[in-house]
Amino acid sequence: MTDRNAAQSSELEATDRAILRELLRDGRCSFTDLGERVGLSVSAVHQRVRRLEQRGALRGYTARVDGEQIGLPLTAFISLTPIDPAAPDDYPQRLEHLSEIESCFSVAGDESYILQVRVASPLALEDLLRQIRESAKVSTRTTVVLSTPFENRAPEL
Amino acid sequence: MTDRNAAQSSELEATDRAILRELLRDGRCSFTDLGERVGLSVSAVHQRVRRLEQRGALRGYTARVDGEQIGLPLTAFISLTPIDPAAPDDYPQRLEHLSEIESCFSVAGDESYILQVRVASPLALEDLLRQIRESAKVSTRTTVVLSTPFENRAPEL
DNA sequence: TCTGAAAGTCACGAAGG
DNA sequence: CCTTCGTGACTTTCAGA
Questions:
Q1: CA angle (B20, B24, B27) in 5-degree steps
Q2: Which of residues 89-108 of A touch B (CB under 8 A)?
Q3: CA(A44)–C1'(D17) in Å?
Q4: What share of chain A in percent tops pLDDT 90?
Q5: Sorting pLDDT into bands at 50, 70 and 90, what band is B10?
């Protein structure tokens, strides 16, 4: 066995973590480079990446884009509190269609959900808030982001 | 001129937005595919992508990785309030070295900053909170994420 | 799970309109 | 800003260990 038999394919081995580390740093890194960096042949890396994709450890790849330059300079966090505490908890589905909502977290604490949103302007935020309240029957508390010292840093693997 | 002359290279043109849309969907998409999808030759797309990278609209590429499978199943938001309101505002620099902190937002509202963190366990979170308080001389308020209905969705371009 | 080789695809710069 | 074209690099598969 490997380390501690990796609890039914749960924990990742060193080489796989090295691969993920490189792909987090550069999602377009070639298999050739990847192979050199982790000390494996091109085909071996190729197989491992495919396996990581199939396992779901590697969910995909995406570009990192500048919010300002694409015309969405305003980020905010919106906390949700259900108006009717007895209503069924289907808030995520009710909000899914609003593309301005980047992330939706179910949380412990005073509020039920935290939404991370990105919009073009204060006016667009006002409109989004109206749509959220209408779609989900919730009251909202909004925290506007002034600046982002850093964001989406890669975790240490 | 184009649309409204794009306010000094600020706004993006339709083809560039189409390219970003595709790269947000699949960060490893080949230039060949990209060209077909946006209706341009391979070289033209290549040039545009390079230009977008130089402009800073395209900041890079990254893999999307499953938090659970890499051994970091716990996400939380931590709000920061300075203990000494007169202290210099260098909190981001003081916290930068803590790799568990994925994002750091300066916000308007009751608190000064919101941190998004990812850790292995409640114990690791406790330890991180201690380090944050020590490093930045702040009091903290923590909201634990129970589940994530959706996260990091691509914005509508 | 690895390696090495073969075949097909792709990246990327040059030249030109 | 676009196209076409050519070369070298890369991806992907497969056989073998």
A1: 105
A2: 92, 96, 99-108
A3: 14
A4: 92
A5: low
- The amino acid at A71: G
What pLDDT, on the 0 to 100 scale, is given for residue B123? 98
Burial class (CB in 10 A: 0-12, 13-18, 19+), B114: buried
Q: Do A57 and B77 touch (CB under 8 A)?
A: no
Cα angle, residue B96 at apex, residues A21 and A122 outer, rounded to 5°: 100
- Give which of A35, A57, A90, A144 is closest to B65, Cα–Cα: A57
**Which residues 6+ apart lie within 8 Å of B142 measured at CB?**
B76, B77, B78, B79, B125, B129
In one-letter notation, the amino acid at residue A99 is S
Q: Do B69 and A12 touch (CB under 8 A)?
A: yes
Q: How far apart are CA A121 and CA B6, in angstroms?
A: 17
Condensed to tens digits (0 to 9), the pLDDT of residues B66-111 reads 999 999 999 999 999 999 999 999 999 999 999 999 999 999 999 9
| Residue B156 to residue A99, Cβ atoms within 8 A | yes
Across B38-112, where does the E strand assignment appear?
58-65, 74-82, 101-107
Identify the band that residue B11 occupies on the pLDDT scale cut at 50, 70 and 90: confident
- Can you read off the two tokens belonging to residue A106? 């179910």
Name which of A147-151, B6-10, B14-18 the model is least confident about: B6-10
Full set of structural domains in chain A with CATH: 3-55 (1.10.10.10), 74-144 (3.30.70.920)
